[in-house]
Structure to design on (66 residues):
């Protein structure tokens, strides 16, 4: 079996713009973290699915066919 990496394409940004982006990365990430928090407050908590527990009184009915 052969495993080879794909080459990474060259950046579309000039080197100066890349450096500027790396310097301001905390500012950018902070901005988007605030937006993510705002969205998560609006959507509310994500409900978790509970597993079936045979010891609980679940509302399942078994219908016998005649």
């Amino acid at each position: 079996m052969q495993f080879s990496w794909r080459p990474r394409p060259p950046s579309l940004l000039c080197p100066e713009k890349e450096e500027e982006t790396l310097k301001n990365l905390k500012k950018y990430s902070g901005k988007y973290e605030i937006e993510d928090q705002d969205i998560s407050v609006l959507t509310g908590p994500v409900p978790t699915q509970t597993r079936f527990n045979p010891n609980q009184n679940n509302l399942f009915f078994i219908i016998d066919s005649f």
About this structure: The CA atoms of residues 25 and 31 lie 10 Å apart. Residues 25-43 form the longest helix (19 residues).
